[in-house]
Sequence to fold (175 residues):
Amino acid sequence: DAGALALIVRAGAGVNTIDVAGASKRGIYVSNCPGKNAVAVAELAFGLMLALDRRIPDNVIELRAGTWNKKEFSKARGLAGRTLGLLGFGSIGQEMAVRATAFGMPVVAWSRRFEADETERERVEDAFGIAIADSADEVVAVADIVSVHLALSKQTRGFVDAALLSQLKPGAFFI
Fold:
């Protein structure tokens, strides 16, 4: 409505934050850049995992209040040896797997694309050195940390629900 706009481009995989129907009615093209921010998103997800494990936000709040509670905040379990479960294995999921391996984390992933293509499943297992699960439920049941990297669509909206979250291990992180 503001003027002569011809194109809307969103950095990232989805266009769910854009009124595509409204743009189309006005003759405005909508595009995205899938995969272009995959490294940044994977780095953020790893930062969140580290922050949860090390309780960095709590530590910072206490430190700013003048308290240094080294004993409490040194109780982190660490990421090494903890299983990372990935729901979705596009560009971001793949970047997550690479980083998890560097952190010494076993990885189990699920993606709809593996359900229909056994060859792709085997190729990914070999290329990334990870396990491919038969379902999202299987990932959640075995993972110490679950990170979701599914593009929002009609098929994925509501995918992560109370039933899926109830299967998390006690103390598991959800990103």
In short: Strands lie at 7-11, 29-33, 84-87, 107-110, 131-132, 145-148, 173-174. The chain has a mean pLDDT of 91. The radius of gyration is 19 Å.
